[in-house]
Amino acid sequence: MDDPDTWRWVWLLVAGGFATAEIFIAGTFFMLPFAAGALAASISAFAGAGIAVQWILFLIVSIIGAVALIPLRRRLDADGTSDGIGSRRLIGADAVVLIAIGDGAAGFGEVRIGREEWRAESVDRSAIAEGSTVRVVDVRGTSVIVIPSAPATEGRESS
Q1: Homologous superfamily assigned to 86-150
Q2: What SS3 string covers 5-53?
Q3: pTM tops 0.70, yes or no
Q4: Which of 19, 82, 111, 137 could form an SS bridge with 120, CB 3.0 to 4.6 Å?
Q5: Rg of the chain over CA atoms, in angstroms?
Q6: What's the CA gap between 14 and 37, in Å, rounded?
Q7: What are phi and psi of 149, to 5 degrees?
Q8: What are phi and psi of 132, to 5 degrees?
Q9: What is the rounded CA–CA span in Å between residue 17 and residue 154?
Q10: Which residues, other chains included, contact 16 with Cβ-Cβ below 8 Å and sequence gap of 6+?
Q11: Tens of pLDDT along 147-158?
Q12: What residues contact 122, with CB distance under 8 A and at least 6 apart?
């Protein structure tokens, strides 16, 4: 297997194998540096470099790639919550009740959160009067689940 022509294709197949494994193996960019190293070794083999140079290039590119991806891996693997994405961004926001929230299973109303209007229900299925200030505690589908955060404001005009 000392034939340089053979190593060209071996490195190319190894690069493809690592790239394919990257797709199917759980984790964040674990196989990608090895695929890049094998691709670099394959390119050097096609350029006529010796086998020792190919192996050294494979190791150097793989190590540099692995070290370079550490910050990206840490950021992607961070165990942060994703509540700030999509409708989940509303959790913790204050809202004003536009249409009173009824009690019981059919107790839906409407709230305004910022400039958005959302269908709402109370967390404990209790009634909440129009004009009350509430806090969003969850989002279920197209409805927000709220709890009262302040007593109803008297004389408040709904818009």
Answers
A1: Nucleic acid-binding proteins (2.40.50.140)
A2: HHHHHHHHHHHHHHHHHHHHCCCCCCCHHHHHHHHHHHHHHHCCCCHHH
A3: no
A4: 111
A5: 29
A6: 10
A7: -120, -10
A8: -70, 155
A9: 69
A10: 35
A11: 998 555 554 444
A12: 101, 103, 107, 128, 134, 145, 146, 147, 148
Return d(Cα 84, Cα 90) in angstroms, integer. 8
**Cβ count within 10 A of residue 97:** 25
Write down the residue that tokens 């690592």 correspond to: 18
Question: CA 28, CA 72: separation in Å to the nearest integer?
Answer: 9
Q: Give domain limits for the chain.
A: 4-77, 86-150
Q: How far is C-alpha 154 from the geometric centre of its chain's CA atoms?
A: 43
* Token representation of residue 134: 């509430």
**pLDDT single digits (tens) 36-83:** 999 999 999 999 999 999 999 999 999 999 999 888 878 877 765 555
User: 């194998």: which residue's tokens?
Assistant: 17
| Long-range pairs of 71-79 with CB within 8 A, sequence gap ≥ 24 | 72/28, 72/29, 73/28, 73/29, 76/28, 77/28
The answer to whether 127 touches 101, Cβ cutoff 8 Å, is yes
The owner of tokens 């509303």 is 90
DSSP 8-state code for residue 114? T
CA distance 43 to 10: 11
